[in-house]
Amino acid sequence: MSKAVHRRYVAFSDAHYAGNLVDGAYALKLFGDVGTNLSIELDGHEGLFAGYSSVEFLAAVRGGDVVEAEATLVKKGNRSRTVDFELRVICRVSDDTGSSHVLEPPLVAVRARGTAVIPADETEA
């Protein structure tokens, strides 16, 4: 099974809502980045993202978190790639002093499934 993983600190400036919450689009942007990474490793091309068949927002992502975005290849067609995505919170800020702690196990915040397409001329190379 092929996969790619990115980790990122969520800046407090990315929080836009009460409770220091980050919007759901933040996770989708990370899925785009890690999905592009996976496409490059699989096909030597960034690919073109066609869309999501499902997205589930399961838990909050907050400023100060450290998150891990993972893309896993589920199915490889001639030009299409079905990919499962998961965003996990692996560290969470404890208070206003900057104190943080590692979450064990990590908190699954977002899951999604999407399809990427590799241009025809790239699959013939």
From TrEMBL:
Keywords: Lyase. InterPro entries: HotDog_dom_sf (IPR029069), Thioestr_dom (IPR006683). It holds the Pfam family 4HBT. Residues 46-88 form the Thioesterase domain. One of its GO terms (molecular function) is lyase activity. The keyword Lyase applies. Gene3D superfamilies: Hotdog Thioesterase (3.10.129.10). This is 3-aminobutyryl-CoA ammonia-lyase. It comes from Rhodococcus koreensis. The lineage of its organism: Bacteria, Bacillati, Actinomycetota, Actinomycetes, Mycobacteriales.
